[in-house]
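Lecture 7 notes. Example A: sequence first, then its structure tokens.
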Amino acid sequence: MERKQLIVQRAREFFGQRLDEVLHRVQQDRQELRGWEEPAHLRAVLRRAVRERANAGNNVAQMAVAEPEIGHGAGEPEKGEQREALGRILEAGASALEKLLHAPAAELTPEDLFGLECVTLLYGRPALLVSQGRLAKVPALWNIVEHQRDDIELTQRGVGRIELVGHPDYDWVGTGFLVGETCVMTTRSVAQIFMERPDTGELQFRPGISAWMDYQADYQRPASAAYRVQRVLGVHDRYDLALLEVEPPQGNGHTPTPLALASEAPAQLEGRPVYLVGYPVADARRNEPEYIARVFRDVYNVKRVQPGTLRGVEPFRDIHLLRHDCAPLGHSAGGCIVDLETHQILGLHVSGRYLENATAVPLWMLRDDPLLARCHVTMARAAAEELATVSGQVERLARTRHWPELRVAVANMYEQAFGKAAPEK
């Protein structure tokens, strides 16, 4: 598909009937940029520009990569030309949205197209930073994410970065997430970077290499203690999936707890709101143009939450692939696709391309899989309606004078609903 058609199509898909609302929001943010500080949800995803040559044929992009002022860290508000460049980008995006709304046959200029592309990424499928365990400010169009902030911040604790020591090319290789007390799920492709299968037939670490799970490798957080990956528990014979044995996390206020895999498909799969938690990595072979990267990314290789929707399940040879649109920026192999309603894990993110639908392993289809059963992977056993019932029961019980005696019953209900022990407060 031609690039222009792709951008317009994605804008219409991402915003649907809300184009006029998006236009109003973009115009409002442009007006706020004339004040002292950028809107918080923009500041959370912008980065300072770097000194590089701009695309000579694109004035907006050229200004967006102008020389930054000294003394500004990534993610901090920009001054002078950088602030004005962002304002011009929003103006270009507003111009394109007005044409889509009121004159669909009108020709988009290069500036319009660039602005529409940026607006689509900022407002349609934002890549929200996780900093110090907290989720960045969420755009108004994704209030549903803001309403689920506490659950999302709890879920992201179980997602970590797989780091390597002794590898000649990589310091880290991908994302993994905790699915048991000592079991981490990632893709087979990630595990194969540091594992090999010698003549014995069993997977083992390549000589001189060790792997570690760091659950707190998020934005502006200093290096933290990681947990050693001890061995590969197994790789799936059909799906791009691997399970690793890792040291159990130490108990503290931010201890990651095992994430529960959904044992059933959602009743409504197409268009269901979900989010991807992972560590997007730059890959020039598959990702966005350089000038988009300069304007919109703070940094790569740190934890992000990327909301989106499911696009259905498709058969592929002897497997099925879950389609989603959560990852327009960066490649987050090994990340988890999480249901925004139940916060159960629906998929293991495998691959994606810029502004195109990405693929994941539909994990509910592996509910009775021998590998997952042998490794004691946590499976949730309750539907959304049951979760609501349990929540109501817990709330009522918490108001009674018998609460201390009922803690055991509450813990049992939580485990039944979520497939895991209740987290320590």
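Example B, a different protein, same format:
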Amino acid sequence: MAQLIKIGEQGVGYRCPVWIIAEIGINHNGDLDIAKKLIDAAVLAGCDAVKFQKRTPELCVPAEQADVVRETPWGPMTYVEYRHRVEFGQDEYSEIDRYCKEKKITWFASCWDEPSVDLIEQFEPVCYKMASASLTNDQLLHHANSTGRPIILSTGMSTMEEIRHAVTSLDPDRILIAHSTSSYPCTPEELNLRMIKTLQKEFGCPIGYSGHEVGLQTTYAAVVLGASFVERHITLDRAMWGSDQAASVEPWGFMRLVRDIRVIERALGDGVKKVYASEKEVLQRLRR
């Protein structure tokens, strides 16, 4: 499998800068103005890309949950009505595409069903993300793979056998794998960051990290362990209504995250021992 994959104009993988993704997901709560503010925050932080989620509610909402009434900020409504309320369609994604081009930031989406892939494909995305929930959906994986675009496969709530099977559905020269644990928020004890090394050893393709924890320390650790890309949810305020907000990073936090990842990259070096020019005066003074 390829150790380096081109996503848009950027290489992701061996000896490339970490590709940093701000996952907007559904943290926009169906409001295009909020989506634009989140894009602005990602641009200000220096992120490489923003990611959305696209679903067709009738296909993705389990039948037994569709008519369950839930309390929402817009009043009581059935779950399928709520999913429609927070879902963007053609018009919204056309504006997102325009706005991201204006702001010079890459965008793409996790598509949870085949019609969603077909809708997003109109915008010629640089890649697709397959959510952890979709890892066992062979038909969807084949459909996304048929676009010929790179695929990021997220591996939360999956066994190694399921991951191996999913990989067989995708082109080995266009696959990236994201280690993830599907808990929101996730405790440190369940992050299992050493899986980054395990996945690198087995699959040889770019391995990244999709985190849902509180705080930034463990995301830095993922970079040190060799994550080629990092994805964290972004929010304007962790107290906002929504299932992903508590496991998200606010704008100031994303600024720190990007800044510190770039410092870590410089500090990691190439693993080849050398005597630096800055050491030579010390060497001459201390080794007489």
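Note on Example B: Residues 4-286 form a domain with the TIM Barrel fold (CATH 3.20.20.70). The chain is about 40% helix and 20% strand.
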